[in-house]
Q: What sequence folds into this?
DNA sequence: CAGAATCCAAAATGATACTG
DNA sequence: CAGTATCATTTTGGATTCTG
């Protein structure tokens, strides 16, 4: 059990190759990609603006994710030969082809999130009710 | 710069709360969940069978992912009081509601995978052509 | 059979300082 | 401005052993 010689990596690659869903998720997955893609769906954007509007992202992550998206052919990087430098990012045609999928995911996500939200609240209410019952039980036998 | 007290965790939660897509991805994401969900879309399945048909998954991961899916209300765990024990897993109604989304993701994934595949081959052909040119160039000035 | 528990490796993310 | 480089930390995944 010295080296696992990346069974991990191997498993990942295998699954990506067989399963379309896994492949898609590996492309749009990661913590920040959904947000970046969402923003770029509305039009091109400069690097600095992206950094400022995405709350909490580090420069390292932003560049990294952008580079991956670029490598996957979803995002185009446009460099203007100016000073101070200016770089814009925009979706390619292939990137735009994700729109229906992204909307489908987003819709289900919001639906599920809302549902779980209310369930949680119900659970909390139940717990509260239980505690209340205990307390009251002691007082009113 | 001692403790980051999980800015990581915080960022994740924030994004999940704001962005439907990120929330959905955190639910169906992970290396094995797409495969598990895909299998369960075809009907209920026993634990052992899941383990056997998913190539390369470890028991730990299988149980872990199933538990998460259960917690998120997508999968139901059915225990039969028999010996030897028997446990089956099936999608809940909420789990089934993912079907259109999953198909949309899978379709795009396969499309994108195929496209990148051919692009890679084209690149390889180009490289090959270049090398060939170099070799031939030396021979036929 | 279906898993729980433990321990370790690898990948993802974050903070920060520096540069053309 | 738009990054790059480096290092620390957090999270995820895998192997193995044990149990009701």
A:
């Amino acid at each position: 059990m010295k080296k696992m010689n990346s069974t991990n990596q191997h498993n990942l690659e295998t699954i990506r190759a067989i399963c379309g869903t896994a492949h898609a998720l590996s492309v749009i997955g990661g913590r920040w990609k959904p947000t970046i893609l969402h923003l770029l769906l509305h039009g091109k954007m400069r690097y600095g603006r992206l950094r400022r509007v995405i709350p909490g992202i580090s420069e390292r992550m932003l560049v990294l994710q952008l580079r991956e998206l670029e490598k996957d052919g979803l995002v185009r990087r446009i460099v203007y030969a100016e000073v101070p430098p200016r770089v814009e990012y925009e979706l390619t045609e292939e990137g735009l082809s994700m729109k229906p999928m992204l909307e489908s995911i987003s819709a289900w996500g919001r639906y599920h999130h809302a549902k779980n939200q209310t369930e949680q609240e119900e659970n909390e209410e139940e717990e509260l009710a239980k505690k209340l019952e205990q307390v009251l039980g002691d007082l009113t036998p």
User: Anything to note?
Assistant: Chain A has three domains: 1-30, 31-94, 98-141. Chain A touches chain B through 47 residues (CB under 8 Å).
